[in-house]
Structure prediction request, 179 residues.
Amino acid sequence: MKIAYIVGSLASQSLNRGLAKALASLAPEGVEFVELPIADLPLYNRDYDGHWPEVATRFKQGILDADGVLLITPEHNRMYSAALANALEWSSRPWGTAALVGKPVAIAGVSPSQLGTALAQSHLRGPLNFFGADLMEQPELYLNATQAGVTADGDVAEESRDYLAGFVEAFVERIRTGQ
Ligand SMILES: Cc1cc2nc3c(=O)[nH]c(=O)nc-3n(C[C@H](O)[C@H](O)[C@H](O)COP(=O)(O)O)c2cc1C
Prediction:
């Protein structure tokens, strides 16, 4: 099983990429986590349709090829990041070909504040429902970086590991069983 993950941060020392690494390290046997990079995607506009840059074609194909997609979002001004919004635009165009339609999707995130990306994730559910993604509503995974011991290197506190592992397990099960 292949789970593609998208990290909505462009920061070199991203806590959210650290969280992605921690989740990937907890993947059960036979489950592969692959990052779909978004840093080199240009800002989408519809003039690209008909002659997409290679980086965008590869990105969208990566979604189509995956059994499930994990979106790991930072919270920027109580929203998911502009980088992630741009990636979602590429995934959804041209009209009628949105790559996330029917795709099992889970969302997660970490921030240094107590909000833990809860507000960003709440916003993210809107477009995912619009796309008709098969969104995992529960369990949710939002973390305060200090409490959960999440670092950009992918470390996580021992006490948080079960929570993270349970999230990965639930997503894998959902992809396997369709519920
Ligand atoms: C433009 C901007 C807006 C931010 N707004 C929020 C916010 O609304 N809530 C929050 O918890 N953190 C906010 N932060 C702090 C981020 O959570 C923090 O920078 C975090 O490390 C971002 O994730 P990353 O390390 O994966 O890039 C903001 C950071 C930036 C750069």
